[in-house]
Amino acid sequence: MSLVPFALAFASETHWSEPVPVALYGVVMLAASGGFVCLRLAAGRRAGDALIFADQRAQAITTLVLACAFLAGSVVAFYAPRGALLLYALVPLVRVGQMLALGHAQARQ
């Protein structure tokens, strides 16, 4: 997580138009996603409740799937840095969509 500010500053210096800084940002975010997956799984196991562990495991799988956008973006950055940014933007958009869908589902109950 401590590399996120470095990657942001490095990419900002080039106005997000150079491939290496944009790819580095994707790699850093991929590593952060991997860390969160490990944290979710460890927290779920530690809870001792099968329902909580199942929820944490489902969230970890979702995070891994979304981390593929960072991986793909890191590769795409060498061909089209702006295209990589679009892939990176998909991750928070999907998460916001999930939260909105969850909020609507809970409101119906």
Descriptive notes:
It is a single chain. With 109 residues, the chain is an all-alpha fold. It has one domain. The protein is 86% helix and 0% strand. Helix 1 packs antiparallel against helix 2 and helix 3 runs antiparallel to helix 4. The protein is elongated, with a radius of gyration of 16 Å. The relative contact order is 0.13. The model has no long low-confidence stretch (mean pLDDT 93).
Radius of gyration: 16 Å
Helix share bin: over 70%
Characterize the overall form.
elongated
- State the helix count: 4
Termini separation: 37 Å
Number of strands: 0
What is the number of domains? 1
Q: Describe the biggest sheet?
A: none
> Averaged pLDDT, please?
93
Could you give the order of the helices and strands?
HHHH
Structural class category: mainly alpha
Q: What share of the residues does DSSP label as strand, in percent?
A: under 5%
Q: Give unreliable regions as ranges.
A: none
Short précis:
This protein has 109 residues and is mostly helical. The protein is built from four helices and no strands.
Core attributes:
109 residues; mainly alpha; elongated
Helix and strand topology:
Elements lengths: L3 H10 L5 H29 L2 H27 L4 H28 L1
